[in-house]
Amino acid sequence: MSTEKCFANGSATPGPVPKGHIRLYSMRFCPFAQRTRLVLNAKGITYDTVNIHLKDKPDWFLEKNPLGLVPTLETPAGEVIYESPITCEYLDEVYPEKKLLPSSPFAKAQQKMMLEHFSKVTPYFYKIPMGRRNGEDVSGLEAELKEKLAKLNEDLANKKTKFFGGDSITMIDYMMWPWFERLETFELQHCLGSTPELKKWTARMLEDPAVKATMYSTDTYKAFYKSYVDGKPDYDYGL
């Protein structure tokens, strides 16, 4: 179902969630929803996807999630969970095979703290391209982003591990990945600067099966974001 066209206002309510499945309400190009898709794929969870037209949301979706945000999960029992970190932690608890969060409370807290730090990085991926389009000087913002990425590089170098939680991929890697996947789309590749460990991490992430299963080409992302900036987002681009 993950390649189906999005549901807009006036569309029929999808049928009940099949037993043994979980449903993801998503949007194909949303980095926050991609976090949840990465976790679903990494853990081998059986799920179906209902893509939502975020500019013209169905009333039935707003009844499930009054905030109208993706990702949103729904279980066969009608339980609804939303917000990307919450959906991902929920999946890790309910489907204990291949745990992505550490079992140690301190290590788990460390990942959550790192995610909190990373939440201060993501706005740059929107502010800088928007500033450029408006003819603003974004050199200061770019310098700040370079500084934040250099700090991530330093963290990884100090850990001496392949990934941010050790030598295998854990939750924090998937939480950060969608924005690195879009660096080229937002023309921010140069902000990686001299971050050798971060560049190695990026190359390793690109080899991960869950990453491969959820990513789109840069050309596809660029086409979607152009339609978004033009005020007519083509959520079904490429279908």
Automatic annotation (TrEMBL):
Pfam family membership, one: GST_C_3
E.C. number(s) listed in UniProt: 1.20.4.2, 1.8.5.1, 2.5.1.18
Biological role: Exhibits glutathione-dependent thiol transferase activity. Has high dehydroascorbate reductase activity and may contribute to the recycling of ascorbic acid. Participates in the biotransformation of inorganic arsenic and reduces monomethylarsonic acid (MMA).
Catalytic activity as recorded in UniProt: methylarsonate + 2 glutathione + H(+) = methylarsonous acid + glutathione disulfide + H2O; L-dehydroascorbate + 2 glutathione = glutathione disulfide + L-ascorbate; RX + glutathione = an S-substituted glutathione + a halide anion + H(+)
Designated gene of the protein: GSTO1
Record-level GO cellular component terms: cytoplasm
GO biological process: glutathione metabolic process
Family membership noted in the UniProt record: Belongs to the GST superfamily. Omega family.
An example Gene Ontology molecular-function term: glutathione transferase activity
Domain annotation GST C-terminal: ranges: 104-229
Listed name of the protein: Glutathione S-transferase omega
Record's keyword annotation contains Metal-binding: no
InterPro entries registered for this protein in UniProt: Glutathione-S-Trfase_C-like (IPR010987), Glutathione-S-Trfase_C_sf (IPR036282), Glutathione_S-Trfase (IPR040079), Glutathione_S-Trfase_N (IPR004045), GST_C (IPR004046), GST_omega (IPR005442), GST_Omega/HSP26 (IPR050983), Omega/Tau-like (IPR045073)
Keyword tRNA-binding (UniProt): no
GST N-terminal domain residues: 20-99
This protein's UniProt keywords: Oxidoreductase, Transferase
